[in-house]
Amino acid sequence: MSVQFIFFYDLLSSDYQKVEVDSGVESVQLPCKAIVRFLKDTKVEDDRTVHVYENGCDQHEQQHRFYRGRTEMNRNPLEFRDLSLTLKHPTDDDNSTYTYIILSNQNKLSASVCTAHVVFLFLSVPQVDVDSGEASILLPCKTTQNLPRNAKIEWWDRFNRKVHMYENGSDQLEDQGNRYRDRTQINEDLLETGDLSLTLKYPTDWDADIYTCTVCNREGKKILMKQVELKVRGQCCCWVCQLK
Questions:
Q1: pLDDT at position 110
Q2: Does Membrane count among this protein's keywords (predicted)?
Q3: What phi and psi, each to the nearest 5 degrees, are found at residue 206?
Q4: String of b and e for 152-179 (b: at least 16 CB within 10 Å)?
Q5: Distances from the Cα of 244 to the Cαs of 8, 62, 240, in angstroms?
Q6: What angle do CA 12, 13, 15 make, to 5 degrees?
Q7: Has this prediction a pTM greater than 0.70?
Q8: What mean pLDDT do residues 221-235 have?
Q9: Would you say residue 240 lies in a domain?
Q10: 168 and 77, same structural domain?
């Protein structure tokens, strides 16, 4: 078993790699290329089950739900020795260390770890700063894509609270989070201009967060995702205690 491990230890082109990408990109590739040919029954997976490839096809049922519909590998990865993984619509929650683990099933009784390849993913999220007590702050989100007229634009905070929603030519605020009521505004011609920026009124330090803007088509497919981090300086309120 130890001989097999040593043989496969240098299968990959490097021990680790660092990948940096800006928020809003459609996808990012986590590179992993082998320098020798694999056995046909080799199994490729990562440490948290982001993606599994085995027996000539993807095994989505073994994938963690957080990555469902967001990962893709090249066709015939073992034949071309390119195990790179494409991760769609990355966000700051995807900032992590990804490990490719290759299991050899040549021995049908047990699978052995042949090698591991590490990729560090860093997503750069733009930041805006504002002083607590200002009248408003603009959370920028612009695109050059041609957006469909039936597109749905949503803004969310990090706790999955709906900040704002625009659909069918108007705001749809029925499900808006209570803390954002009467405090948000979006451009009326956003689909024509591609300016999806959100105005947040009366920001306080409670609003410091990472906000996500998503655009979906009529079928519900996500076609755009961008994030922005809001930093608020100062206190939203203070208490004064006087001892008599």
A1: 41
A2: yes
A3: -70, -20
A4: bbbbbbeeeebbbbbeeeebebeebbee
A5: 76, 66, 13
A6: 75
A7: no
A8: 88
A9: no
A10: no
Distance CA 188, CA 164 (A): 13
- The reply to whether 6 and 83 lie within a common domain is yes
CB within 8 A of 25, min separation 6: which ones? 90
pLDDT band for 105, please (50, 70, 90 cuts).
Answer: low
By DSSP bridging, strand 152-156 and strand 209-216 are: antiparallel
**Which residue segment(s) compose the domain that 50 sits in?**
2-124
Indicate the DSSP class of residue 133: T
Rounded CA-CA distance 189/175 in Å is 22
User: Residue 239 falls within a domain, yes or no?
Assistant: no
Q: What's the CATH number where 150 sits?
A: 2.60.40.10
Tell me whether residue 146 is in a domain. yes
Angle, vertex CA 60, rays to CA 55 and CA 65, nearest 5: 155
Note the residue count of the chain.
Answer: 244
The tokens for 210 are 């990472």
Q: Which two tokens stand for residue 104?
A: 């050899």
Rounded CA separation 125/88 (Å): 16
What SS3 class is residue 4?
helix
Helices (H), 87-177: none
* pLDDT for 115: 52
Say whether both 116 and 54 belong to one domain.
Answer: yes
